[in-house]
């Protein structure tokens, strides 16, 4: 397919829908991570210890990762049985609705124990919706890709992560510049959650104009959809599911160390202002976007697996430099570490849109890739900010680097042993 064919309206619509949808989802997900690092501790978990408040806030952050595999099974079931389009719309509505509702929650001071309970329920709703989002967006892109273009098509939903991050952190940065501390803690933090309703509306409008993917149509013409996609995945594709699960651990670990943990550590332990540290992260996230694009082209020139393995190997080495770069407290060195770390994130995340769905046949691809991606999210990201905070308090920031290196080695081993790509 030529560059002209790639620019056709239908193709542009597919790629835009895969990008916009995941950008909205990651915006919703990351404004929670930012608020958890900055304000949720004192607002929802009163305590004499700021560290204990932050740990409790990070614990609610982990709830969504527990919900994501549940959402993966649910949305994967319908995505493999009735199609990608309607499932994607439903996941976006659930995620967006939960996010908007968080913006209207009472605090502990207003409602007592009911407030953190409601926060946990809505956080579960966020995770449940996101459990069906990523795989559906990735399939939308790669199942419409011509031969030789799967990784470049698959990088579009991956670019939703830095786009959503830029929108979320940019919003919080603007609020920090125009509001004083009291205004931000009282009501300003709610605005990014409530405004999400506009972004969700845009995402629904874009996705509502799509048609079903060619791969799904072809799979349905070959044979009826599986009655229980999960059963077929666990019976016939358990090796791919297991390998895919551990293959994605590194990307989740990197992302939430460089974003949620780093923000909390920088604004508490190191004492930087919220606005200063957010600006550093906004610059660093551009390296992630560049890494995703680089990885997309590199993967089509070689293989997604090879790029992922290089990314994991380089990340394992980078983890050894956390102590001098982050522990010293220099803003310049912190910026260098976060930029290089997020560049590596591009290498271990960008190719996943092509690699992970490629492990499964189309008839169970939504379920298989969703389960692997989201269970890997629990292992790599669910408890990572809280574990990193604990490691810092017990042994210092060098141990956070070792944690990142260990996650990278785990994914590298999984990639080494998992070589098969599915053939329909």
UniProtKB/TrEMBL annotation:
GO terms for molecular function: transmembrane transporter activity. It holds the Pfam family MFS_1. The chain crosses the membrane at residues 57-76, 88-108, 153-175, 187-206, 242-265, 277-295, 307-326, 332-359, 371-392, 398-418. It is a multi-pass membrane protein. It comes from the Bacteria. SUPFAM superfamilies: MFS general substrate transporter (SSF103473). It is found in: Cell membrane. The keyword Ligase does not apply. Residues 14-423 form the Major facilitator superfamily (MFS) profile domain. Its main location: membrane. The keyword Glycosyltransferase does not apply. Keywords: Cell membrane, Membrane, Transmembrane, Transmembrane helix, Transport. One of its GO terms (cellular component) is plasma membrane. InterPro entries: MFS, MFS_dom, MFS_trans_sf. PANTHER family: INNER MEMBRANE METABOLITE TRANSPORT PROTEIN YHJE, SHIKIMATE TRANSPORTER. This is MFS transporter.
């Amino acid at each position: 397919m030529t560059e002209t064919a790639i620019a056709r309206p239908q193709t542009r619509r597919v790629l835009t829908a895969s990008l916009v949808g995941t950008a909205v989802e990651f915006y919703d997900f990351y404004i929670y991570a930012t608020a958890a690092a900055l304000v949720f501790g004192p607002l929802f978990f009163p305590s004499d210890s700021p560290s204990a408040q932050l740990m409790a806030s990070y614990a609610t952050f982990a709830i969504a990762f527990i919900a994501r595999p549940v959402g993966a099974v649910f949305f994967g079931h319908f995505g493999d049985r009735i199609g990608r389009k309607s499932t994607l719309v439903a996941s976006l509505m659930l995620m967006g609705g939960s996010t908007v509702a968080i913006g209207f929650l009472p605090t502990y001071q207003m409602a007592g124990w009911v407030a953190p309970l409601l926060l946990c329920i809505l956080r579960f709703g966020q995770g449940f919706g996101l459990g069906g989002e990523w795989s559906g967006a990735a399939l939308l892109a790669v199942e419409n890709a011509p031969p030789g273009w799967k990784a470049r098509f698959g990088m579009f939903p991956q670019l939703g992560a830095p786009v959503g991050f830029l929108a979320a952190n940019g919003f919080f940065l603007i609020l920090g510049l125009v509001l004083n501390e009291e205004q931000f803690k009282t009501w300003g933090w709610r605005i990014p959650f409530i405004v999400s309703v506009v972004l969700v509306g845009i995402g629904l409008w874009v996705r509502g104009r799509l048609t079903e993917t060619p791969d799904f149509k072809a799979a349905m013409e070959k044979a009826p959809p599986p009655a229980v996609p999960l059963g077929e995945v666990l019976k016939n594709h358990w090796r791919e599911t297991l390998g895919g699960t551990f293959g994605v651990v590194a990307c989740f670990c990197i992302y939430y160390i460089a974003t949620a943990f780093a923000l909390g550590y920088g604004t508490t332990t190191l004492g930087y202002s919220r606005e200063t540290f957010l600006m550093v992260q906004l610059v660093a996230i551009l390296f992630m976007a560049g890494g995703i694009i680089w990885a997309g082209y590199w993967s089509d020139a070689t293989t997604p697996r090879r790029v992922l393995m290089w990314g994991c190997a380089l990340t394992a080495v980078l983890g050894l430099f956390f102590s001098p770069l982050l522990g010293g407290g220099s803003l310049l060195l912190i910026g260098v570490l976060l930029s290089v770390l997020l560049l590596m994130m591009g290498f271990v995340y960008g190719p996943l849109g092509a690699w992970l769905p490629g492990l499964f046949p189309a008839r169970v691809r939504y379920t298989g890739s969703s389960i692997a991606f989201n269970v890997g999210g629990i292992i790599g990201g669910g408890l990572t900010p809280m574990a990193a905070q604990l490691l810092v308090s017990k042994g210092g920031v060098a141990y956070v680097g070792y944690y990142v290196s260990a996650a990278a080695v785990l994914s590298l081993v999984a990639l080494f042993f998992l070589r098969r790509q599915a053939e329909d």
